[in-house]
Prior knowledge:
Oligomer: single chain
Structural class: mainly alpha
Largest sheet: none
Radius of gyration: 12 Å
CATH superfamily: ACP-like
Amino acid sequence: MEPNYFDLVVNEVAATMEIPAGSLSPSTTFAEIGMDSLQALQLLVALEQLTHMKFEEPDLKHFITVQSTVDLLIERSKGATA
Length: 82
């Protein structure tokens, strides 16, 4: 069974940005909540640790919205099992 990547991303973004998880939706952009490049990198590292996936700095270009980040995790999880 595939993990719930949406909840995982929402919880990590909320923790990184110190905002309520309930204030985030799939279309929430990281720019609108004030995420800077260092916070995006912190999020990337946290997601690596939680998912045991490996990401590279270019993957940060997918860190635009909650949903684009979820989509990246789903894509990576399918690639890892293929």
